[in-house]
Amino acid sequence: MSLSLKVSSIVPSYHLPLAYSTRNHTLLVLPNGLKCLLIHDPSSEMMCGAVTVNCGAFNDPPNVLGLAHLTEHLILRGSKTHKSGSLGRKLAESGGQLNAYTTSNQSCFYFQVSTFAANTVGDGPSIVESILPIFSSYLTCPLLNERYVSQEILAVDDEHNGNRNNQEKVLFHGYRLLANPKHVFSRFATGNFDTLSLISSKKIKSMAKSYFSTNFTPQNMSLVFKGPQTVLQLKKMVLSEFMSLGSSPKTLPHPNDGISTSESTLHLEVSKNEIDLFITEGPNTIVLRTPFAPKIRISFPIYLMKQTENYNPTVRSLCNLLGEEGPESLSSLLSTEKGWISSLFVFVQTLYSDVQMLVIDLEPTKSAWSHLKEIVHEIISYLKRNIGECKEETLNILADYYSKLDEYNIISQPASVTLLDDVLDYAERLNRSFADAMQPNFISSFKSWSNISAASQTIKNMISVCFTECLVKVIILAPPEVSVEQTIRIQEEYFGFEYELSRLDFDNSPQFDFSEKKLPSPRAEIVGNMISRLKNSTRISTSHMVRGFESELLNPHLVSYDQSHEIWKSTNPQTSYENLIVTVAIRFPHIRASATNSVILDLLVELVGNELRGPLYDFEKIGSFWGLFSNINRCSSIMVTTSGSQDAVESMLLQIFATLRETADRLNAYPYAHLKKARVNLRKRYEQSKDCSNITKVLSASYVLLEEGIITPREKMESLELVDEKCLKSFKNQFLNTQEYLSVVKTGELNTSCLTNLYIVGKNYGFGKELRDPSSVVLRDGSFYLFETETREDDNISVVMHYTQIGSRSDTSLFVLAKFYLYLVSTTAMDELRIQRQLSYSVYSGLRMFHRQFGIYILIPSAWHACSHLTDQVEEFLQVVEEMVTSYSEEEFHEQLLLPFIQALSSNSSECDAESGLFASLQPQKGSGDKPCGPEFCEHWNHLNQILNSTYKFKSKNCEEPWDVNLIRGISRKEFLEFIGQHMHPKSLQRSVLVICSHPFNGIEFQRKQVVSRNLFQKMERLDINIDEDSILDALLKCENAEAYGDAFRILSKRYPNQKIKLKRLQLEAQFGNLLLKVGVSLGKFSLMKNGRRCFVESSVPMVRCSDYHQIHRESSVAPTMLLTEKFEKLIRIEEYQENSIY
């Protein structure tokens, strides 16, 4: 206690969103220089911690790109005082997590765990007190063991291979390719096998140690803790475990001195202040030839005005002005008038530190490619003329309006989707500047205008300085056939795509005549008195479980129902803040869910969404959400979701349904240009789904294979080509004369009168006896299928999804046993499959929830192993899990497996995990953005999932099934082993397995030999062996030794006899076969031993290979489902239960 009194602290006065109103914040600097932010958050039992270090990829030596990232991986493998490196696995056993990431100039290490969780980590009185000494030791004295180097190089390489399929990562790399080659930002940052294998593991270890000792000093670090503990308790934890960081502290600053961290310069060859990030007369346009959806990203260097007093409000005003979607907006000009784009999105992109670009993302139409210069010129002209020449008074009014909108959105913003989001953001910004952390806007990041009368001039100054033809940067994602500029295509070294660099002259683009320099008119009446109403609200944070409560949202209450609708309402008893979420799912049970009908419904939603973009944009600006979904649950259906204030939700719903009715009524007589645009967008969406990455293909294939009536993107594309005016007229007549059934779920208060207008057709004549809900496919007992998906040409990653069918979702006991088994799989998979077997950097596992069935899956993407090898390894791993359970006595089973599982379930009950089943990947076809996934929305989706499935089990989480703790406590070792023996054991004739795999396009063997040839060529160069890389690859391709390619030396020695002695020496020194095994290219299986015997048991069921999902459907059955008449009877029973206070 005496020590804590010596550490001065500051209690900042932060402007907080209402969702964060229960939090208390304290800033302090430890005597060793470590900057800390401590957050007392009584609304959650979760403890989160993050330590950010002011070093990253900028500190990589030029000859070992990726060293910072690799060191981050090595640090988490253990410390000198805790060598096992098993903290991550033990945290997972308690429902927590441990991870890290590296950016250009920062590295962050973080953990999260429930304070209620069982202590599986150490001997401390609580799990948190056991975690902190280990976590601190990783950052104080990491082991950095040489034997882990080759393993983690493969992990880094796997991570990079995943980035190659990430559109945003590829676009960000475009900035590096445009940057000044002399600037450190231009270098490859992640690292891969090639960049990290240029020198020996021993040398890598030495460099990692040097990098760590130079940069990981407390003065260069920041710490953020957030948890339910008091600030005093958090302070004691920090002082107890983090005072040892740094052995020779420098002169300590006082918190009031305004600490700012400096850039570490271990390997920084040039100061960023001495070299321009971009060359003014250099390339300004780059075309990336990738399989992603076409995109034009236009960026302006707003960081040039970073020191401006009103920088933040100026940037926000420009984002709002450029992102408007009304009739006078830039979006309307480029899409409606010119027809060059289908959508526009404006945001700020941080490249590193405080270097930011204002980005305008455009989704181009086909005509855009021949008007690229005009598009950029039009945007700059709009900025200079419509905004730059706008009357001062008008621009000030707009700036004030947008400032109020931003303030409203900040105050009303919901808590972060996960607790860690806040902690990581604060840790990064605290690391950049302690002085900024003392400012009132540190949490909200919102700064208002210091003088609104100066807003107009400040905005115009930024336009004149930053938004010019000579400073603009354009990054284009384009298919190979699109011609932009006649330049040489270059093969990118790290991501593998082709690209073209050019300098386009936007000054000489065609001039456009702006007859009127207009800007969108502010809609001040929408903001009205909302800010004052919000400030007068008393909202308790509802982001997570309040300690002692199982749930904050009450189970939905059946408000009204008949044979045309059911209306459910749920309320949040912890808040008086009026925010609604309303979803209306409209099902057309008499319209067959054929490919043609499905496509026309998609077309109808596309048309409606296009009509609504302008009218609903004003509601988007105040944080409201709207989304349109079609063909939900494999039914002919349309779903509408809205959220926001009561006034906003009611207005949006009425507007949406009026537009739906109007559009449906004139479907076959719609204007040709609008219909063509909608068809083009649909075709593009179907093509993107068909040509998605291997990981997405595998996940999507599971629904096609295991759900009844799924229509594939290929089938939709074929049907779209056949849809003509006659089809539209026929569908319209059927649509307007059919019955509709509404399922309405509302979270919050909504006037009942509004709901009476939420019909499209309004007809009701009862259900036919034959109408039923769609169901799921049931694999026959003893089946073992291997389904192979199509592969995208540029995707060189093997992906395997191993799915074991468990049974019916309605079987509560079976679900609980499966959940327990999944817990054991999830807590051991990363350690066993990634670290021990080195299969992949990423290993995913979970429950796959289908309409009526469910199962357990393990998904592994790997750049190093063939699908067959991955499948074998998963099969072996599942047997290891069985062996582990078998080895425990009944008492050990209960104490070491069952109790930690119960604790992990309890801690996860407050977290918003990803949904399973219907809502796992569901996104709006049209709307204001992606489907919201905050905690309140997760509850809403969960309730909606139960209602649409007609199961009504509202106590469940994450769109799964409810579980009963008492039922879990009663699980015995014998019962659990019987479950494993029946459903998971390879000899079981009741086990049903589906393995879905996507092979790399070039074949795993070719990839491996490419990597090996590169590695050998580099080693030969250092030994003065003059053999080119192509010859080495050719020898490897002819090699007969499939295990280690050992014949390659014999082939090379015959071809290059004068190099024979040197080759022999290299073969002996490197022990070629073992070398290849070391870098992870062996094709051999692991020989898994346990208690002196091999525990891998061959499956008694032969694997059936197929690529036609119809074959699996023919050989399987369909799970029992519910008739719609039975659904109505079930609602009657629910109403009776409610009336008797039983339900």
UniProtKB/TrEMBL annotation:
Q: Name one GO biological process term.
A: proteolysis involved in protein catabolic process
* Gene3D superfamilies attached to this UniProt entry: Metalloenzyme, LuxS/M16 peptidase-like
**Which GO molecular function annotation, any one, does this entry have?**
metalloendopeptidase activity
Q: Name all Coenzyme PQQ synthesis protein F-like C-terminal lobe domain ranges.
A: 825-896
Q: Which residues form the Peptidase M16 C-terminal domain?
A: 209-385
Q: Name one GO cellular component term.
A: cytosol
Keywords for this protein:
Hydrolase, Metal-binding, Metalloprotease, Protease, Zinc
Which InterPro entries does the record cross-reference, listed alphabetically? Metalloenz_LuxS/M16 (IPR011249), Pept_M16_N (IPR011765), Peptidase_M16 (IPR050626), Peptidase_M16_C (IPR007863), PqqF-like_C_4 (IPR054734)
Domain Peptidase M16 N-terminal, residue spans:
37-172
Which family is annotated? Belongs to the peptidase M16 family.
Q: What is this protein called?
A: CIC11C00000001434
Taxonomic placement: Eukaryota, Fungi, Dikarya, Ascomycota, Saccharomycotina
